[in-house]
Specification:
By secondary structure, the protein is α+β, with helices and mostly antiparallel strands. The protein is globular.
């Protein structure tokens, strides 16, 4: 395959306006991130990326396991995997050996055959970068004399039902979500070119990063059909254009037929699309309840909350989750019950449900202040959050609720990078509370998320509309898990 290499800087001078594909095959356009790429290297298969970038990456690279439309896990690049050894000690430290056999006849876009060395290389590279916490329980991977892949898993399975089955399922879940397989020889022989011109085994191959709107300097990623894809009969379409476009322009471009699919809508744009559909009805809006949970978590380093369980209960009783869901998010979210598949089922003692009662909360806070001879009328707390539309709306409502419950909450807004650095570094720094988002199946949490949720807090809601899709593509439904799957679109 011959690929013509362009850099965006060169395109800005020579390219002119690129308003559509010059390719004759069947093409679809998909909106993606607000911020444009600074380099294609940001589609690195083994680093933490925003969901919109992962949607692109998901078309280029395959994983050992994959999710179907309903979120169930099945084999992808592996022919089979089976547990060959399992043990656990009295402290619930479990060890498991998993042997996997790769499918034959699978090739990368550069015509190199898929081999066990590619999996080992991809896993080792993943462990060196920001996605490492998601696969920390996979200790090592090696190749056996029979050319099988041997994964050694180690994890504390205390409190898990059917721990052997749970750990094996967690392995499949983690490899399906995070372990994209890259070509070892291509990476080692091409240096940075392997990132700027990615080559995977996926249904589409990378063609170009090209300007499509010179006026606002917006670009698009062009992917084309992998004619030799190992899944017979797929993909169904010939070309995908992932266009970088600010959310404020999504609706207009969608109506003007510049876009075929709007995935991962914000609540604000979801509301706009509903109004347009009501007036025109020329497209459909699909929404799906997915693994997208919101929490108000306690910082274990907070001196107040760490030593006063009653204050945590007062916070619980001072927050009306139904008001947040219905009043702020206009019903486009869901208040989970204890029976729902949430972190509550994993940590029932940490995420208790309390009757909303700010009067009792105020009494608890005043008793606490009086006991410590503090003359303040309210107990001052600090709340850390990402500076985003949804987070700000919810945080402001929580602040007002907790004020009535006896707390004076100061909001501290940070950009996403700073926020995650604080939270994942030392559990929120010097803040008492922090808003937290979990977008994975709570039954198979990563070690980092696992530690956060064990400390407890208030489980707020599960999102609907933030992962809704507006589409002009017949029969397309948003996936329940993983990146968007465009392989089967006709």
């Amino acid at each position: 395959m011959t690929v013509v290499f362009f850099r965006l800087s060169v395109l800005l001078i020579f390219c002119g306006i690129f308003s559509g594909s010059l390719y004759a095959g069947k093409s679809i356009t998909v909106s993606t991130c607000t911020r444009d790429l600074s380099t294609v290297m940001e589609i690195d298969p083994h680093i933490r990326v925003p969901g919109c970038i992962n949607d692109i990456r998901h078309q280029i690279y395959d994983t050992l396991y994959e999710f179907d439309d309903d979120g169930n896990i099945s084999e992808s690049l592996v022919k089979s995997c089976e547990v060959k050894y399992y043990s656990e000690d009295i402290d619930f430290n479990a060890e498991m050996d998993v042997l996997c056999t790769l499918k034959e006849g699978i090739y990368f876009h550069n015509s190199s055959p898929l081999g066990v060395d590619d999996v080992i290389f991809s896993f080792d590279r993943l462990k060196r970068y920001s996605l490492a916490p998601y696969v920390d329980f996979i200790n090592t991977v090696s190749v056996t004399p029979a050319n099988e892949l041997k994964f050694i898993l180690k994890y504390n399975i205390k409190g898990r039902e059917n721990p052997r089955e749970w750990l094996f399922t967690r392995f499949k879940y983690a490899t399906a979500r995070y372990l994209y397989i890259a070509n070892r020889k291509y990476f080692e022989g091409s240096a940075k070119w392997a990132l700027e011109y990615p080559s995977g085994t996926g249904p589409f191959y990378y063609v170009n990063w090209k300007l499509w709107d010179r006026r606002y300097v917006r670009s698009q990623i062009i992917l084309r059909k992998n004619e030799s894809y190992w899944k017979t009969g797929y993909p169904k379409i010939d070309e995908i254009l992932f266009r970088f476009l600010v959310p404020e322009l999504w609706v207009d471009h969608f109506i003007q037929d510049s876009l075929s699919l709007l995935p991962r809508l914000t609540f604000y744009n979801y509301e706009k699309m509903k109004k347009v559909k009501s007036a025109r009805g020329t497209f459909k809006i699909n929404r799906r309840l997915v693994y997208s949970y919101r929490y108000l978590l306690f910082n274990k380093k907070s001196l107040r909350l760490g030593t006063e369980p009653m204050l945590k209960e007062a916070i619980n009783m001072g927050i009306n989750r139904s008001v947040i869901v219905n009043g702020i998010l206009e019903g486009e979210a869901y208040v989970n019950s204890q029976q729902s598949l949430t972190a509550s089922t994993v940590y029932p003692e940490k995420f208790k449900e309390y009757q909303f009662n700010p009067a009792i909360s105020r009494a608890i806070v005043r008793k606490y202040l009086k006991k410590r001879r503090v003359r303040d009328y309210k107990l001052k707390l600090s709340l850390l959050l990402v500076d985003g539309i949804e987070e700000n709306m919810v945080a402001q409502k929580i602040r007002n609720m907790l004020y009535s419950a006896g707390f004076d909450v100061a909001l501290h807004r940070k950009d996403a990078c700073t926020y995650f650095s604080l939270v994942n570094g030392e559990g929120g720094g010097d803040y008492d509370l922090y808003l937290y988002k979990v977008e994975e199946n709570p039954s198979f949490l990563t070690p980092v998320v696992d530690r956060h949720l064990q400390n407890g807090g208030v489980q707020l809601y599960q999102a609907y509309s933030f992962y809704s899709y507006s589409t002009k593509i017949s029969g397309y439904m948003p996936p329940a898990e993983g990146g968007i799957n465009l392989c089967k679109i006709e």
